[in-house]
Amino acid sequence: MTTQKEATTSLEAQSESELERLASLLELDRQLQEKREVVAALEREAAEMEIEITNQQQAVGAARAEREARDQQRRELEARFEEEGAKMKDRRMRLNRVRNEKELSALRREIEVGKEANQLLEAEVMSALQAVDTIEATLAEHEQALAALEQKFAAQIAAHRQRIAALAAEVAAERGARDQVAGSLSKTLRAKYEQIFARRGATAVVEVRNGTCMGCHMHVPPQFFNEMKKYRDVRSCPNCHRILVWRPDSSTSSGK
């Protein structure tokens, strides 16, 4: 027949076992949280480097598009200049054949107007050439900056991605172990723990020392603390609602 002492000892053993599993679960969740935070930080850093490269690529693309537009404008102006030059040559040849004074005067006026137009076109061609040269220099600067960024960040991004993949694999593997430990807890305790962990993170489970919760650093009622020591059961802090654990090797002088 089981004695009262044996029953109490059995309950304490079960409670200790559940507390041990709870501590194991907390440690696994801490490790998983840390790895997820590292992954998030690596993702942010890799994304920032990739954004910087993308921005520089866009600057190169914009410079190339502007160079093409400027060069097209230059070609069109040069074509018009050549066309007007051919017209001017034709007018001068006609000048030697015209004998009518009125026609001769009109042709001379046409030549003068054409000459002014050609001078303006020539100035526009020179301006377009200078614009092309300017954008070519800008494009070269952007391309050099892009090459420097790609050289600077390529190895870092590759290392980040490799580290992220390794951590993701570790998280996936450890998640299975974590779920196994969580599944060994009672549904009530598991639900309470996961609710608190969602708010408190790594401090979801804390020790009570000398009658003080190490999470909120508030004293718990003396009777509450004495019952914790006696029954070794799982309880929540009356103040912060974290899950409390008490270990016999902790100093308990003020809780006596």
Could you characterize what this model shows?
A hairpin with a 6-residue loop joins strand 3 (235-236) and strand 4. This protein has helices at 4-95, 101-183, 187-200, 222-231, and strands at residues 205-209, 212-213, 235-236, 243-245. The radius of gyration is 42 Å and the shape is rod-shaped. The protein is 78% helix and 5% strand. It has 256 residues and is mostly helical. A four-stranded mixed beta sheet has the order 2-1-4-3.
Give a summary of the structure in a few sentences.
Helix content is 78%, strand content 5%.
What topology emerges from the helices and strands here?
Layout: H1 4-95, H2 101-183, H3 187-200, E1 205-209, E2 212-213, H4 222-231, E3 235-236, E4 243-245
Parallel strand pairs: 1-4
Antiparallel strand pairs: 1-2, 3-4
Helix pairs in contact: 1-2
Percent range of helical residues: over 70%
DSSP strand count: 4
| SSE pattern | HHHEEHEE
Rg value: 42 Å
Mean pLDDT: 85
- Category by helix and strand content: mainly alpha
Q: How would you sum up the major sheet?
A: 4 strands, mixed
Beta-strand fraction estimate: under 5%
User: What is the 3D form?
Assistant: rod-shaped
